[in-house]
Amino acid sequence: MFLINSNSAYKSPLDPRDAEALGPVAAAEVERFLSHRQNNAKTPLVSLGGLARKLGVSSIHMKDEGFRLGLGSFKALGGAYAVMRLVLEEASKRLSRQVDVTELRSPEVLAVAKTMTVACATDGNHGRSVAQGAQTVGARAVIFVHSGVSDQRVAAIAGFGADVCRVEGTYDDSVREASRVAIERGWTIVSDTSWPGYERIPSLVMQGYTAIFREALRELQDPPTHVFVQSGVGGIAAAAAGYLALVMGDTRPIFTVVDPERAACIVESARAGHPVTVDHGEPTIMAMLECYQPSLVAWRILSRVADAFMTVDEHDAVTVMKRLAHPVGGDPAVVAGESGGVGLAGLIRAIGDRQIKAHLRLGDQSRVLVINTEGATDPLKYEAIVGEAPGSVLSRKAGAAG
Asked: Catalytic positions, please?
């Protein structure tokens, strides 16, 4: 499925709340917070020149978030950042003064954090980030996971000291249960999706993601003309589209949102012209994107600054994982999890369809930016799909670089 944005809000200015959350000032503050986290380093920007030649575009660059903060996913930026912000805000209120991130490990702030419990629902990666953020500041974390989350991903969350609660059903069921229990017990929900009356914290989560695109624009010799970003509830796509629109203005790239065919809540919202919940069907291999209800904040942004919406299928997702692990044309190998290469899969599908290619004005002058949103966050599943362990792929990459 492919849709050009025909919503009435298209090309209208961002809501002032979203412009403040995703603008350059906020993005700079995110980077300042990052400087106080362990394992902080910019992630690689990988040039896929061989693939670009094969597809007939000028360049393809992939920001590889599989290396982000030791968590293996872009989600490391959002949940933990929001937890840090919320703890500092609570400390400021209780201490009756402004508390800065430089005081995060001070006895006074740690004493406040110790009284706080943060909770969220997750497919795996967001929960790890919230759990890591809670561990960093000394708060308690309770993470709700649905029945489709693998045992390896649950163990990774628990490894940060979080309590994990299993919920029967889908991701959306776990979101509702996390919210119900948190309200009942006075916990703070740190969700990466939003609903009526709950927008600010998801906006903070999205704000954390702006670091990806701030880093990429600094490193790229020429700015991208096209960006393809995958979407679950819409957070990463909205953060990218919003930030790029704010910092690049009229020169911003053509932005395409890519959904899994079996969980296309953003694409169906684009078709309807308003947020819609899609029916639960057969699960998608793109587990981190298996969301059936869009974030309202994300939709508010994407309806204005996304240019197109499309879906990819299960075969597309598997093929791009294998292509990145076993590249051609001298490109480096990239470890991408089941959801990691979906934006690139969208580009490949668009290039292969004459009408989509024309609609998006893709050609030999196009400079494309995509995001590997996750590495092998479930190594056993990765090896079963790709036929090679992630460590083996990474060792070949290191050998090629040497």
From this structure: 75, 123
